[in-house]
Design a protein that fits this description.
Blueprint: E1 3-7, H1 13-26, H2 31-52, E2 60-68, E3 71-78, H3 105-113, E4 116-122, E5 126-134
Antiparallel strand pairs: 1-2, 2-3, 3-5, 4-5
Helix pairs in contact: 1-2, 2-3
Length: 138
């Protein structure tokens, strides 16, 4: 499976966006789905840098992609602090943007852009975010 590892810097996120975009394009995904995937990956990687590592330059992010039967699976792995997704409050959707609390919006975005999002945490193999997007749906 194709993969890329980048240092945990916000400036490196463009490399991961390009990496997943090229794989999705080769798989025949449309531009809208490619953009959704890139945005979800960017959000997940930003969360890894900010929350798992606690800042830039404190660890690497590995991205692996696979295409299978009309879907793309993206796995992001890091060795930062694990988090409990169930502890993130749901995003408040009925409030003005100025009153929106900063926590939860990224999870909401990832879950709505992708068809499946899951998290695994293991001290030895690190943290793993798996995101799946289906295409060629009937």
């Amino acid at each position: 499976m194709p993969n890329i590892t980048i240092p945990g810097h916000f400036s490196g996120l463009e490399k991961i966006r390009e990496f997943v975009g090229k794989i999705a394009q080769k798989a025949g995904m449309n531009e809208s789905d490619i953009y959704a995937i890139q945005l979800a990956v960017d959000e997940a990687c930003s969360n890894i840098i900010e929350h798992a590592y606690g800042g830039e330059g404190l660890g690497a992010i590995e991205c692996t992609c696979s295409i299978d039967n009309g879907s793309i699976k993206i796995i992001l792995r890091d060795f930062g602090e694990p988090f409990e997704p169930e502890r993130i409050p749901p995003m408040q959707k009925d409030v003005p943007l100025q009153q929106l609390k900063p926590r939860g919006a990224g999870m909401y975005l990832m879950n709505h852009l992708m068809d499946e999002v899951s998290f695994e945490f293991d001290k030895e193999s690190g943290n793993k975010v798996t995101m799946v997007k289906y295409f060629n749906k009937e």
